[in-house]
Amino acid sequence: MKNILVMHTGGTISMSENAQGVVTTNDTNPMTNIEMIRNIANITEKHPFQVPSPHMTLKHMNILRKTIINEIYEENYDGIVITHGTDTLEETAYFLDLTLNVSIPVILTGAMRSSNEIGADGLYNYISAIRTACHDDARNKGVLVVFNDEIHTATNVTKTHTSNTSTFQSPNYGPLGIITKKEIFFHHLPLTYPPLVKVNEDVKVGLIKAHSDLDADLIKFFADNQYDGLVIEALGQGNLPPSALHGIQYLIDKNIPIVIVSRCFNGIASGNYQYEGGGYELLNMGLIFSNGLNGQKARLKLIVAISNGLADTSLQNYFKK
């Protein structure tokens, strides 16, 4: 059997519903020491921390990264599974995808329903993640997310519903593969890129969503409070209200990089519109247009880029990938 390292980090998959119908953290994680999983793989379980996923920070993500590097250096693991809360699962997955240089499968999974709720999905997702981590075709595909019988890339997956068990989807691209009771099928291959391995936990990157009448002072806030970068979820294909432009120029004058993504659920931001605040003007001002990422992932990518000293053309090219 394959040797699989499991790291439990908390989240709904580790919680239970109490008598008042409120989901709360357990003293013991119900996903630990599951006997039926012992029949699938040789499991080593670690508990680097236990936090609800809204408490997840860049420091927590970096602890996971360092733990993985140390563990695979010391032991010959065939795959890694991380159980995680769903609210920020996609962010941790993408951070690890950007910064880990490993060929073995790294799989994140979680649950939308706690362990004692009707229709609880945690154990099933956990078993599916173990099975995927054992599968030879899961190697060299970057960090993956397994949920509800589907396999998604960390780059494309996002949480799309507050409570539905099929919440994790990959807009524009769809899942990488599917899981049946007896088989695992990968039906297309992801593009993978060399990681950047330096992570400075002190780098500060802000994230805001554009709206009509966006105030320039809101944008200027990030320069005045020593942020190192800003991501803006812009309108449509990558446009901003004219009211925001003074703030944009303020950041540019202070050499603070600004990344543009779209606030739209599907599609890619691009500099097509030539009017005041249009994407064409923003592109010419030096703003960076990301290749289809959502805001929360673009923020992590900019943190990693700054940590590794990327600037100007290198930064522009990094966000085209």
Explain how this protein is built:
The structure is a single chain. The chain has helices spanning 58-74, 89-99, 122-134, 216-224, 245-253, 279-285, 295-307, 312-318, and strands spanning 3-8, 15-17, 23-25, 42-46, 79-83, 106-109, 143-147, 150-153, 158-159, 168-169, 177-179, 184-186, 205-209, 229-234, 258-262, 288-289. By secondary structure, the protein is α/β, with parallel strands linked by helices. It has an 8-stranded mixed sheet with strand order 4-1-5-6-7-8-11-12, with helices on both faces. Strand 6 (106-109), helix 3 and strand 7 form a beta-alpha-beta unit. Helix 2 (89-99) runs parallel beside helix 7. The two termini are 36 Å apart.
Keyphrases for this structure?
8 helices; elongated; four-stranded parallel sheet; single chain; 321 residues
List the topology elements.
Layout: E1 3-8, E2 15-17, E3 23-25, E4 42-46, H1 58-74, E5 79-83, H2 89-99, E6 106-109, H3 122-134, E7 143-147, E8 150-153, E9 158-159, E10 168-169, E11 177-179, E12 184-186, E13 205-209, H4 216-224, E14 229-234, H5 245-253, E15 258-262, H6 279-285, E16 288-289, H7 295-307, H8 312-318
Parallel strand pairs: 1-4, 1-5, 5-6, 6-7, 13-14, 14-15, 15-16
Antiparallel strand pairs: 2-3, 7-8, 8-11, 9-10, 11-12
Summed over residues and divided by their number, the pLDDT gives a mean of 96
Question: Which bin fits the share of residues in helices?
Answer: 25-40%
Count up the helices: 8
The stretches of 5 or more residues where confidence is low (pLDDT under 50) are none
- Biggest sheet strand line-up: 4-1-5-6-7-8-11-12
- The coarse silhouette is elongated
Helix/strand structural class: alpha/beta
Amount of beta strand: 15-25%
For the biggest sheet, the summary is: 8 strands, mixed
Radius of gyration, CA atoms, in whole angstroms? 20 Å
What is the string of helix and strand elements?
EEEEHEHEHEEEEEEEHEHEHEHH
What is the number of strand segments? 16
Ends distance: 36 Å
